[in-house]
């Protein structure tokens, strides 16, 4: 990962640039008069403006304390601390992230949660409120009840590799979530078991995507600075120092499936491309084909998100 200060500067810079450009762009420009690159920039600007309107700051600690009850500290990351809590009116569980810098993370998470599933719910956790104080920013996010991160589920709850059908049910939701995020030009960049929650529901556990601290907008141009987890970085970045959104997301999906099926083995790109990390278990041919399509070391030959979504193993 990049150092935290570098990540914060990059995120803040993106917000400022896109907001200032958005105030100058004319709404009358028709999409068909723009190149794809210009259209993407216009779309990103519109999304930022729309998200910012929905995240109007509420000032004053009294307002925050009146609406939410803060509980114990449950974690700490590169951007700040995370606390458990609940909304006082209905005891709805939530988490508070305290931060000293305005992150692009909040806007992207809000945008990614806009597209709902058939049940009217989003695979991305909801951003409920933002409180902007002089020295800190408090983001209030949904905390799915009875949930556990996918890494803990694999290593502690199941104590080993998952059955193929169970892995398929989880992957089907992950692929769908990835496609929905890319549809609104959100590139998570750090999809891994630790950033996926499994919410206990009747039947199949529900997948929830968290932690947009490394996320950015999808662009046509390749990226050169990697801010995700290096052990999941795609081979093209490891070998050539550049990567693209679609192929990288597919690689991350393949890496997560590898861990779902491998149990105690944690994925590492360097070990995988050097053939020092292999999956030794009996799997259906469709499952093996799906995994190989996702983990093709050549990004040009790697499956696209659409091809992954339409693969027979998931149908």
Give a written overview of the molecule.
β4 (127-132) and β5 form a beta hairpin. The strands form three sheets. The chain has a five-stranded antiparallel beta sheet, sandwiched between helices. Strands 6-8-9 form a three-stranded antiparallel beta sheet. Strands 7-10 form a two-stranded antiparallel sheet. Residues 1-34 have low confidence and may be disordered. The protein has helices at residues 4-22, 36-54, 61-67, 104-112, 150-157, 164-183, 235-240, 245-262, 269-273, 285-294, 305-309, and strands spanning 68-76, 81-87, 93-99, 127-132, 137-142, 147-149, 186-187, 196-199, 206-209, 216-217. The longest helix has 20 residues, at 164-183. The protein has two domains: 4-138, Phosphorylase Kinase, domain 1 (2-Layer Sandwich), CATH 3.30.200; 147-309, Transferase(Phosphotransferase), domain 1 (Orthogonal Bundle). It contains eleven helices and ten strands. The radius of gyration is 20 Å and the shape is globular.
- Tally of domains: 2
Report low-confidence residues grouped into runs of 5 or more: 1-34
Share of residues in strands? 15-25%
Average pLDDT metric? 77
Keywords:
315 residues; alpha+beta; Phosphorylase Kinase, domain 1; Transferase(Phosphotransferase), domain 1; 2 domains; 5-stranded antiparallel beta sheet; 3-stranded antiparallel beta sheet; 11 helices; 10 strands; 40% helix; 16% strand; globular
């Amino acid at each position: 990962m990049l150092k935290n200060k570098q990540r914060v500067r990059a995120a803040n810079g993106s917000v400022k640039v896109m907001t200032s450009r958005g105030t100058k762009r004319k709404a009358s420009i028709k999409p068909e008069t723009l190149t794809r690159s210009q259209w993407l920039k216009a779309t990103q600007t519109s999304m930022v403006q729309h998200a910012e309107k929905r995240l109007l700051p509420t000032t004053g600690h009294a307002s925050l304390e009146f609406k939410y009850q803060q509980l114990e500290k449950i974690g700490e990351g590169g951007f700040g601390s995370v606390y458990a809590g609940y909304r006082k009116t209905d005891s709805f569980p939530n988490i508070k992230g305290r931060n000293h810098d305005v992150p692009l993370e909040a806007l992207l998470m809000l945008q990614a949660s806009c597209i709902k599933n058939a049940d009217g719910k989003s695979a991305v956790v909801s951003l409920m409120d933002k409180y902007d104080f002089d020295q800190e920013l408090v983001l209030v996010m949904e905390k799915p009840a009875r949930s556990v991160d996918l890494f803990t589920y694999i290593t502690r709850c199941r104590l080993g590799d998952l059955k193929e059908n169970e892995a398929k049910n989880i992957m089907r939701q992950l692929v769908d979530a990835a496609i929905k995020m890319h549809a609104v030009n959100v590139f998570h960049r750090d999809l891994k078991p630790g950033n996926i929650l499994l919410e206990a529901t009747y039947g199949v556990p529900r997948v929830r995507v968290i932690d947009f601290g490394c996320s950015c907008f999808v662009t046509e141009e390749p990226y050169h600075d990697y801010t995700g987890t290096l052990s999941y970085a795609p081979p093209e970045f490891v070998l050539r120092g550049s990567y693209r959104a679609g192929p990288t997301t597919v690689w991350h999906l393949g890496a997560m499936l590898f861990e779902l099926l491998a149990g105690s083995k944690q994925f590492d790109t360097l070990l995988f491309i050097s053939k020092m990390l292999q999956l030794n278990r009996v799997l259906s041919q469709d499952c093996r084909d799906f995994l190989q399509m996702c983990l093709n070391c050549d990004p040009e030959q790697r499956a696209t998100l659409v091809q992954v979504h339409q693969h027979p193993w998931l149908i």
